[in-house]
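During the no-cost extension, the postdoctoral fellow (Dr. R.K.) reprocessed legacy sequence entries with the updated structure-token encoder. One reprocessed record is reproduced below for audit purposes.
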Amino acid sequence: MRSADRYFDAANAMLARAREINAPVIAAAAPKIAEAIAAGGVLHTFGSGHSEMIAREIIGRAGGLMPVTGLFDPGYGFSENVVGYGTRLAQRHDHHYGMKAGETIIVISNSGKNASPIEVALYAKQKGMTVIGLTSVAMSSTAKTVHPGGQNLHAIADHTLDNLGVTGDAIVEVAPGMMAGPTSTFIGCTLLNLLMLEVVDLLVAGGHTLPVVTSQNIPGGMEANIALSQKYRTRLSKLIG
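Re-encoded structure tokens follow.
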């Protein structure tokens, strides 16, 4: 069987398991996010290095919630294991957009061991925020953290979404001892969208107006987004309009 076919079958089976295993976590974490958004607050995300792609999936996304703001690393993760760097990133984000008690941040790290995501999570907890960790629990529970606090991401987070990733992320052996076909982005992005849809359902059930981004490529989309964004303009890392 071709490598792509083996990847497709294995990754989709992994996704189905991830959805089932994480359903209780999503059900437990979504109400806090919905409560903050209903009160005019925002959801925060952070992913260092390649994990930033997952964080960006739900920021300013057509069909997604508008009040989602990102904590971005201008160094794209090259300093993610410099102790203190993640704290400075969180302080800068807090200064510009506000990290408020009662709000939630999703911190994404496949390994769960790097300093920056751990420090962002710790800073958020000090601010009275809820922390959702998105990680490979298999890696986060076995890889030695580089942070002097000694804890990995899953041990710090209030809720942990498990992408079920294997050590090294890749799942297809393409040559003896050589693996390819990573799954963390594919499954991580899906888990975040499942979480966002659970939040949407809770907002609807509570009778709240949905702050959903409209595609700017359909008539009236940009105008609708500009009008909606006025409520959040000082707090969003990605402005629309």
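Helices lie at 3-38, 51-56, 85-97, 115-126, 137-140, 153-156, 184-205, 221-229. The two ends are 48 Å apart (CA to CA). The remaining legacy entries will be reprocessed before the final report is submitted.
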